[in-house]
Amino acid sequence: DGGNVAGSLAITSAPDVVFDGGTLDGKTALDLNGTITNGKDSHDQTAAAGAVTVVDPGTASGWKVQVANSAMANDVTGSTGAAAQIQGGTINYTGAVLASKDSGADAGVALDSDSISLNTEGTAAKNVYNAKKGSGVGTWTDTFSKANLTVPAGNAKGSYTSTLTWTLTNTPEA
Question: Which of 106, 58, 81 has its CA nearest to residue 158?
C-alpha cells in the first residue's frame, strides 16, 4: 500500500502488529496481546494505528477490502516439522470502528464484521469492509483497537513471522 495513489481508488494505510512477551516452550499455550502500529509501508504515515484506510477520489464504483495471511513461519531458515510454523493458532483483530474523514454517514459503506480471525497456518482472503456501488466516495477508515495471538501448547520455541496482505478491489457487495 505504499505506491503512488494520487487520483486512484487505493488503500493508503494498513496496520502492522508485533506480539511479544511470551516464550514458546512446547508445553505452554500462549495468549498474547499485540502492539498495533501504522504499517511501515503505508502511504499515509499520519493514519491512526490499526487503521485500514481507503480513498475513493470520486469513482463511486463500490469497493471491497479483504485481508489474507501467510503461514506464521519460523524466522530460522530451514526449520522443519513442528518448528516450521505455528500450528493451531489464531491472529485476531478486534474492536473495529468504521469512520469517514470527509464524507459523513453513508449507509452504503459497512464493516463485514467488527473482528477478523486468521489462522496461523495461513488464511485465504477474508472480507473486512465494503462500499456498495454508488457509495464509498472520500476517505474511509476501519480502525482496529486490539490485536491478539493465541498459540496452543505443542508449538516449538522460536521467533515466527506472518505477512498480512490487504487487498482493495472495485467489486462491490451486492
Answer: 81
